[in-house]
Write a structure and sequence with these properties.
- By secondary structure, this protein is of the alpha/beta class.
- The chain has 2 domains: 125 residues, Aspartate Aminotransferase, domain 1, CATH 3.90.1150; 218 residues, 3-Layer(aba) Sandwich (Aspartate Aminotransferase, domain 2).
- It is built from 10 helices and 12 strands.
- A 7-stranded mixed β-sheet has the order 2-8-7-6-5-3-4, sandwiched between helices.
- It is globular, with a radius of gyration of 20 Å.
Amino acid sequence: MSKFLAERLVPFEAYVPGEQPQDRKYVKLNTNESPFPPSPYAERLARQAAGGLNLYCDPECRVLTSVAAESFGVSSEEMIFTNGSDEVLNFAFLAFCDDASPAVFPDITYGFYKVFAGLNGVPYREIPLTEEYRVEVRDYFDAKGTIFLANPNAPTGVAITKAEIESILQKNPDHVVVIDEAYVDFGGESALPLIGKYENLLVTRTFSKSYSLAGGRLGIGFACPALIADLKKIKYSTNPYNVNSMTAAAGIGALTDREYFLRNMAIIKENRARMTASLEAMGFTVLPSSANFIFAKCADISGEVIYKELKKKGVLVRYFDKDRLRDFVRISVGSAEETDALLRAVKQIKEERA
C-alpha cells in the first residue's frame, strides 16, 4: 500500500477470489466454474469475431441483445450487458444506494456485496440468516434500503421462491430489490417474469457458470426500461465498450446452442445429487442446494482440515474462515470424473482419521 492511497480506502478490504494455484494439476472444485468447455458454436463465433478486433466493439451489443431478447422473453429495453454480472452489481450500488437508501443484504452471502458497498462509500446493513442458513423473507419487509439477495444464495446454495421474492418487492415499493441469479439455472426459481410487474426489480445473471464462459466475462441485468436507463447512464460514464467483440459473439453462440446448455445442466444436477448422497452417507451434513455447488460439513472433522487434506490429495474446495462458516467447505459440482475423485479423497481422509 502506497502513501498516495486515498484515506477512505486504507481500511477497505478487497474481495478475495478463489485460489488459482499453478504449482500442480488439481481437481478444481473451488470457484464454481463449469467443468465443460464453451459450446462449440460459441467458440466458433468468438474466433470469427477475433478478425475484427482492430475496431471498437458495439457498445449496445445489438446482435447479442436481439438474440437474448428472444431467448429470455424480454424486450431489448429491459436488458443491459456488462463485463460479468459483478459489473452490473457494482452499477446497482452506484445507481441505487446512498445515505438515504443504504444497501441491505444477508450476513452470509456473496462477498462482493460488502466490497462494493465499501468501495462506493455506501452504508450497509447485514441481516443474519436463520439457524438453517436460510433467508428469512419477513426480515426484508420494509427494509428501508436497496436490497441485494443472491438466489440461490452463495455460499450456501439455498434458494427462496419467486412468491417469496414477490412479497419482498411488494413490501419495499420505494426501494430497488436486486436479485442476483448467478446460479438460478441449476435449480432455482427465477424472478425474471416479475420485471414487467414491478418497477423496483433488477435481476442479474452471469454467463460464467451455466454457459461455461467464466473467462469471457459476460453478465446481464434485467429490469424495467427506466432502471436499465439508470444503469446505462453509469455504463456510458465509465466504460461504454465494456463487452468485447469476442465475448459478445461467444454469448450469442451460447444462447443459440440450447441443446448443449440443457445437457450440461442435467449432468450438473445429476452429479450434485450423487455428491450430496455420497457425502451424507459418509457422515456429512449438506445444505439443500439449488446451485452448481454444495455447502457441507463433517461432524468429526473441521472444515479447515477437510480443505487442507483435500488439497494435499490434489482436490481444491473453498474454505471460509469466518463465523458460522468454519465448519463447512463449499464444493463445486464438477464432471462425473471430478466427482469420483472428490469422493475417493474424502473417503481416504475419513479412513486415515478413523
